[in-house]
Amino acid sequence: MRAKTIAGGILRALGVILAIGILCLFIYKIQSVLVYIAVAAVISLIGRPIVWFLKYKLKFPNILAVITVLVLVLCVFAGIMGLFVPIILQQSENLAHIDIDTFRHDLYELNQQVKEFLGVRQLDLVQGLKRTSFVQNFDFQFIPDFINLIFGGIGTILIGLFSIVFIAFFLLKDSRLMLDSILVFSNTGEEEKFKNVFNKIKHLLSRYFVGLTFQIFILFVLYSVLLLVFKIDNPIAIALICAVLNIVPYLGPIIAGALMALMVVSTHLGTDFSTVIFPKLIYVMSGYAIAQLIDNFINQPLIFGTSVRSHPLEIFLVILISGILFGVIGMVVAVPVYTAIKVIAKETFSEYKIVKKLTKDL
To answer: Containing domain of residue 210, as a range?
Structure first.
């Protein structure tokens, strides 16, 4: 009897392991669908306040309010595509016909001017780059080919966009749809607790994503004005890229600053470094620093303090740990995931002091 019990336990354990393996494989295979659902959920969280405003303030019917929000989302997407596609096509064509000798000469001149400006005899970064076989034999024809490859996947993009809009439509139309889907995992008699947790998470994350959208918009406006004033190439597109990069906490602003500095240099490549490039670089980066100060001391405290109700140091540590464990993706999702965990902990482990301390403002 004991041998049969042990054998049965082993078989059950193997069955559980096999089931977990099949589940992981299934999740891996449908990861694109999960991404569509996640993006649609974020759109619904951002669009929920707008739907509410249209329904209860402007007396729109529910369906019309939802359709209006989705049309706005599609207009934003179309505007972004209309902004970037012509630039990408133009730049790919320009790069395909670039004069590599002129480009090398401009780099050489820039290198010499930087050496003279800094008062150093040796600065061989550009020279070393010029000597590499990669630069000497670089075929710029691959760039338009790469662009053509991207546009070859336009069907996949359209399918993804349609899926996201379709899912978002029903999430916005029926606010209980996601709640009812989650309640199936609750035990009998615990539905009310699940409902409270879900509503609290939805409320906090909706405020967080709305605040994040406003943060990106404000940075986009500041960066656009800055780049337009100093006549940097493609200012609107660069401003949008730099603003969106701020979604990645701490690391994103560094990359955005480097991109902005690179655009200043590339815009004025071939001009005098000490009288044109360096002053423009100082002005633009000073403006960028001011925009970051506004974001760090005004925008972010409002978003993190009033939306997810967490201390800035608490948020910093969560983002840092998530970045170490899961990389850039972990940094992006750290705040919403941590907020959800805090709400669940407050409802489930409220008797512990550390939980009471961390969730006292929820």
So the answer is: 186-362
